[in-house]
Amino acid sequence: MAIDPTLLEGLKQRREEALMGGGIDRIEKRHEKGLLSARERLAAFFDGGHFIEFGMHAHHSCINFGLEKRKMPGDGVVCATGYVDGRPVAVYAQDFTVGGGAVGAIHAKKICDLLDFAIKAGIPVVGINDSGGARIQEGIEALSGYGQIFFRNVLASGVVPQISIIAGPCAGGAAYSPALTDFIIMTRKNSNMFICGPDVIKAATGQVASLDQFASADAHMAVSGNIHLVADDDEHAMALAKRLLDYLPSNNLGDTPHKMNNEIPWVEDNVMNEIIPADPKSPLDMQQVIDRLVDPGSWFEIQPGYAPNMITGFAKIEGLVVGIIGNQPKVKAGCIDIDSSDKASRFIRVCNIYSIPVLSLVDVPGFMPGLAQERGGIIRHGAKMLFAWASCTTPKITLICRKAYGGAYLAMCSSDMGADFVFAWPTAEIAVMGAQGAMKVLYKKELEEAKDPAALELELRKAYTEKFASPYQAASNGMISDVIDPAVSRSTLAFAFRGIIAKHETRPPKKHGNIPL
Amino acid sequence: MEQLRITVDGKTYNVVVEKIESSSTYTPAPAPAPVFRPAAPAPAASAPVSAAPAAAPISAPKVAGAGDMTSPLAGIVQAIAVEVGTPIKEGELVITLEAMKMYTPINATSTGTIKAIHVQVGDAVEEGQPLFTIA
After folding, report:
1. B54 touches chain A (CB under 8 A)
2. Does any CB of chain A come closer than 8 Å to the CB of residue B50?
3. Number of neighbouring beta carbons within 10 Å of residue A269
4. pTM for this entry
5. Residue A319 annotated as catalytic
6. Domains of chain A and CATH, by start
7. Whole-number pLDDT of residue B18
């Protein structure tokens, strides 16, 4: 009673047809451009190149404009689950060889089903976007499909990590699904992302703009801040997505992938002292500080090209996964401005969702002064940082390297904002404002009446600096856990994080707070 | 109709612009290029964290062209490390600005020769103002 062989033959035929997508010609054309096909992208992503597909035999339901005669294998999207470093992950890849990867009702349903599955299973979702947009023949059905995807992106947000890869065109409404996810990786060549293209911009406003100016990976990294990582090509994009997963749990209740050793060595790193300039006006290179604090090779910067006055990224310290927020005094003096506030706040919130401890490295002279900043709403944007820190319940440690002035000091997570430990180097300056500004407020009258105001100011400024340009006033008030030798920063942080790693903090129940957007 | 706010020599004018004809049938007479001067700097006392002394002269910002390196933030030119004609490599220090109690190094973003330096030590510069040109 063996199986009827024609059934197996029929299945084989159907599978072969489906696996070809839009046909060998179109796939070869992609190869000539250095692009992978949808299934090749999945194979590059999953362990051993193996995955299980959902909806291989799906087909569109459209009977308009002659579409009923056109075959569209898988309806232009491949949905699958497989394993990455032994952990299950759900991935969909739009197939540009099938009807330009355009989204119709069934195409959207496949993506929605995959998102539902990922939420149910508690596994990360990676979406590989490569689509010409809505399938016009399906009309409002296609639009409805986008709406259903958006809704599920939001349901999944904060539950399972969502990573979008932009590896082709991603225009109009299609761009809003990636925008709703946690991370966007974009390939440098052959991909663009925009709401209105050059033709629409020109027709509506008369402005002449090329895609390179506003839709390319480099433009989105440096200017709009819409994306988090730029990839050289398809394979690199897959590798970056896999690397991201290495720092994230599978879901919001899962274990953060710490790989802790049994012992933490106590190491003195004297090079750390050498990279701190003696002149307080010479900028400290915060990147060098980070490189010396984290496990070699573990630093993974997020949004490296956007608002570089604020550094954000993941790393491991003695095997412990941490998110790092750091001021970069080499750029814009390390001031906090609108863009850097947005960048840091979003990163802190990602760490909070996925139970990743956060390290704040402080060297900040203040919020960026200027008309554009005030008019652009630095109050609202800076407030996001305060909101993000105060609502973050994961372990939080602050290391004050040098300057920590005014509201910017609070925006970098002082003990008041919920830091579990605050360490300071002896070079730390913690004050409400700099000496020059403080003189004008504290001694305005005295200086006006003085015979030699310059000499008096110098004397008063010296006294102010001695009192405040050090960490000891804050330490005497209990605002600092300890003042430490920079050489033992790495070991101190490793000890402190290990001690607070099991922290569990609850907040009053509510729908959600009202973060200033 | 579009409303524009134009500031000339510190005086603000509200201007209403109405488009009458499409450009194919209506050609406006060529107007002389307008000369813009920067607004006066805000007094330092109102911004206690600003390091810029109010007395510092402001060089007139120009429109940046090709090869121009512009200032990333408002500040004072503290030092100029090169002269016109100096060969320069990408990443080398050209100008040091002081702003917000901090020196900000301005490095060359391309390799070439310093064709022009648009500022002097002690100048107050605005964000986006051209500092030097590499050719």
Report:
1. no
2. yes
3. 16
4. 0.86
5. no
6. 5-245 (3.90.226.10), 271-428+470-500 (3.90.226.10), 434-469 (no CATH)
7. 65
